[in-house]
C-alpha cells in the first residue's frame, strides 16, 4: 500500500458515501465496463485502481493490498475464476472479493472459486453496487447509523465504448480459435452492458455456431463489420 492509499484508508465512511476509505482494484478488460465501475466508486466514496488482465492485476497486488477486488470472469490471459481462487486462499486475504460477468452461470463459477459475492453485468445502479460490497464488508468498515439507499444509475462515457470497439478490431485481425472465442465473449459482454442489441445478437449468433463447431465465417464477417461501423460512424451509442 502506497502513502496515498494509507491516507485514504483512514477516511471513515458516511451515510452518503458508504465506501469512503476503501481502495477497489477492478480487474476488467472492457473500458466501458470499467468506466461504469469508476463512476460507481466515485459516487460511493471508494478509490479505484484498474487492471485489464490477470498479469496486470498481479503486478498491482505486489505493490499494494486493496480493500476490495472486483474480477471479471472473462479476461484476455485466463479465467478470472483462477485469480479469485488465488486471492481467496492468500494470507492475509483481501477483505472483499467479488466476481462479475454477464453470463448466466457467472455467479455459480465465481462463488465456487471462493468469491464473497457477485455483480451481474450490466452494473449501473449505485445502490445495488454499494449493497453488494457492504454485504460482505467487515462490520467495522460500514458507515454508522441509517443509510439512504441511492437509486441513481451511472452512465458510462460513450468514448470508452468506442475504445472497446477499437480493441476488438485489433484483436479481430487474428483468426485462431482461442482469439475468436475471447473476442466473442468480450463483445457480447460489452454490447450487453451498452444496450447495443444488434452487436450483442451478432456475437451470440457467432458464439452458438462456435459452440456447435459449425463453419461461422459469415457470422464472423458480420460481427467484424458491425465493429468497424461503430468505429467509423459511432453507431449504437
Automatic annotation (TrEMBL):
InterPro entries: Bact_response_regulator (IPR050595), CheY-like_superfamily (IPR011006), Sig_transdc_resp-reg_receiver (IPR001789). Residues 23-136 form the Response regulatory domain. Pfam families: Response_reg (PF00072). The modification 4-aspartylphosphate is found at residue 72. GO terms for biological process: phosphorelay signal transduction system. Keywords: Phosphoprotein. This is Response regulator receiver domain-containing protein. It comes from Citreimonas salinaria.
Amino acid at each position: 500500500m502506497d502513502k496515498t492509499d494509507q491516507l485514504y484508508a483512514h477516511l471513515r465512511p458516511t451515510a452518503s458515501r458508504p465506501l469512503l476509505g476503501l481502495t477497489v482494484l477492478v480487474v476488467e478488460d472492457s473500458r466501458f465496463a470499467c468506466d461504469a465501475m469508476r463512476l460507481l466508486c466515485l459516487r460511493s466514496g471508494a478509490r479505484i485502481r484498474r487492471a485489464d488482465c490477470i498479469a496486470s492485476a498481479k503486478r498491482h497486488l505486489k505493490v499494494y493490498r486493496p480493500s476490495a477486488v472486483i474480477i471479471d470472469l472473462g479476461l484476455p490471459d485466463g479465467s478470472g475464476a483462477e485469480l479469485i481462487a488465488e486471492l481467496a486462499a492468500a494470507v492475509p486475504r483481501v477483505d472483499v472479493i467479488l466476481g462479475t460477468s454477464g453470463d448466466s452461470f457467472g455467479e455459480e463459477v465465481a462463488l465456487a472459486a471462493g468469491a464473497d459475492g457477485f455483480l451481474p453485468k450490466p452494473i449501473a445502479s449505485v445502490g445495488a453496487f454499494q449493497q453488494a460490497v457492504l454485504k460482505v464488508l467487515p462490520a467495522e468498515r460500514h458507515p454508522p447509523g441509517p443509510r439512504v439507499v441511492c437509486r441513481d444509475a451511472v452512465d458510462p462515457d460513450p468514448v470508452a465504448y468506442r475504445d472497446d470497439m477499437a480493441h476488438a478490431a485489433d484483436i479481430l485481425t487474428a483468426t485462431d480459435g482461442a482469439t475468436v472465442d475471447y473476442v466473442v465473449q468480450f463483445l457480447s459482454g460489452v454490447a450487453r452492458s451498452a444496450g447495443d442489441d444488434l452487436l450483442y445478437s451478432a456475437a451470440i449468433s457467432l458464439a452458438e455456431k462456435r459452440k456447435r463447431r459449425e463453419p461461422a465465417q459469415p457470422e464472423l464477417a458480420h460481427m467484424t463489420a458491425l465493429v468497424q461501423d461503430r468505429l467509423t460512424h459511432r453507431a449504437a451509442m
